[in-house]
Amino acid sequence: xxxxxxxxxxxxxxxxxxxxxxxxxxxxxxxxxxxxxxxxxxxxxxxxxxxxxxxxxxxxxxxxxxxxxxxxxxxxxxxxxxxxxxxxxxxxxxxxxxxxxxxxxxxxxxxxxxxxxxxxxxxxxxxxxxxxxxxxxxxxxxxxxxxxxxxxxxxxxxxxxxxxxxxxxxxxxxxxxxxxxxxxxxxxxxxxxxxxxxx
Length: 199
Description:
By secondary structure, the protein is mainly α. The chain has helices at residues 7-27, 34-41, 55-75, 83-99, 102-110, 117-144, 152-164, 178-192.
């Protein structure tokens, strides 16, 4: 069936994705039905297929869009040449991007298993590109003598996991401001990479 065009579609399509995101994050992909998504948006159950082929397509669009946006935003960053300054820049960027999208981050990790093999590979390709950015940054610092780590690849995975895990507990109205969060995690990242941290 052909997709609808015009202003109504431009409004309804994003609403469907947002409803799917909220429902997937709250109940899990497997438990959510297309009928529930349609009801959340306020359209007839059958009409939702004018905007998306199925639930799998919605999940893929959300995860793919998240990674594409992450890579595009990083490509626009002016990263310092100095390895330690570049590390601080990456920490600030990663935290800021992810704490603004807690539901997307959550389903990006929890719902990967529900993608088809083809869709999974597409997401993994983008994640690997992002991981390589971090790996290359760490490797550069190791070669310059700024970082002291036994394995740059493992350290890149550990750094990403440490920073992304913040989404599980950080709240804008909590004890730490986003600036203080970044300051503390820059210090943790430096320690992880063997950089001497001023007292």
